[in-house]
Amino acid sequence: MSAVPATPRGRAAVIAGVGGYVPPNVVTNDDLAARLDTSDEWIRSRTGIAARNVVSPGTATSDLAVEAGRRALESAGVAEAGAVVLATTTPDRPCPATAPEVASRLGLGGAAAFDIASVCSGFLYALAVGAGLIATGVAERVLVVGADAFTTIIDPQDRGTAVIFADGAGAVVLRAGEPTEAGVVGTVVLGSDGARSDLIEVPGGGSRHRSSHAATGDGADLGDPYFRMRGRETYRHAVERMTSASRQAAAAAGWDVSRDVDRFAAHQANARILAAVADRLGVRPQRRLSNIEQVGNTGAASVPLLLAEATAAGALTAGHRLLLTAFGGGLAWGATALVWPDVKAG
Ligand code: UT7
């Protein structure tokens, strides 16, 4: 029996492009305070958010993902990718995955394409999977997208979530390269705790509580169709998990966090969470990247959108030693360390 040909040895995944997109419609804190029992002062002081972008009716996650993906491909100077990995909590529909449509609309028809459901950690999971697709020879180039139209699953009357969550997309292009290059995706730390899946969930619409359109039978519990979060408990887990995952990722890279990290990009969950994590890690304030004030918490889009905006603004430049981390529903979390490559934001 002949051996199966080995996968290409020593192939690394290298970031070759980055792009971000937010829909044009801006909602301010005062806009929210006009219809909810909240205030600009409360939202700013408790979350650090001043405004956010929101999709108009009829705009879906794929529309955001296509724009960010197009910009990332332009940034990389390429028109082709062999795979599209899309992290999202708000797919265009429950079935099929949204990634194949995104691939097709970007002219990448035929590419391997699928979604990742890891809520706000989705981009870190998708990055690890994208790097794996290159390592195993599935693709020479992978488009990794984080996109969420989060406001489409938010209860408009729930002030605990309506003031935080927002819509957007971010993407990177990964290409096959050498393990010593800038932009190489190294060890990605990932973890989960399904015992606390109750902290962040959309209870209805799945196989446990079927959607109202499925055959439910008499007396079936349709479940709550909205995104629910137990904020205070989630907050505590977010700080603990992002701190420990960041430490593990830095250690895997051989970095001392307070000395070696030039830029820290954490999931933009809440400005107080970001400050608590960075303080614990000893990352100085001027090294912390943040755009939460203007874009809010954009779920799986948060980290790549931040990378795109920071690159465009010149806050993240070639050679910066960058630490990324994210946390969200699952519970699920992730972190990785990399040297930022010489890319222009698309
Ligand atoms: O992205 C995935 C992971 N998500 C996160 O990491 C988010 C984690 N959680 C948070 O960011 C925060 O917990 C929230 C922003 C959601 C809430 O902030 P908090 O400081 O934890 O407030 P709280 O839930 O402890 O509520 C404090 C008070 C309560 O009133 P009482 O019981 O003290 O009278 C709430 O009812 O603030 C009230 N409150 C509000 N007041 C005005 C809650 N939301 C609002 C609001 N406006 N929007």
Descriptive notes:
The chain has 346 residues and is of the alpha/beta class. It has one domain: 3-Layer(aba) Sandwich (Peroxisomal Thiolase, Chain A, domain 1), CATH 3.40.47.10. It is 31% helix and 22% strand. Strand 4 (83-87), helix 4 and strand 5 (112-116) form a beta-alpha-beta unit. The chain is globular. The structure holds oxa(dethia)-CoA. Residues 38, 42, 46-47, 120, 159-160, 163-164, 231-232, 234-235, 238, 269-270, 273, 297, 327-328 line the site of oxa(dethia)-CoA.
What is the CATH architecture term? 3-Layer(aba) Sandwich
Q: Give the CATH class.
A: Alpha Beta
Evaluate the radius of gyration. 19 Å
Report helical residue fraction.
25-40%
How many strand elements?
13
| Tally of individual domains | 1
Q: What's the average pLDDT?
A: 94
Task: Throw out a few tags for this protein.
binds oxa(dethia)-CoA; 22% strand; single chain; 11 helices; 13 strands; Peroxisomal Thiolase, Chain A, domain 1; alpha/beta; 5-stranded mixed sheet; 346 residues; 4-stranded mixed sheet
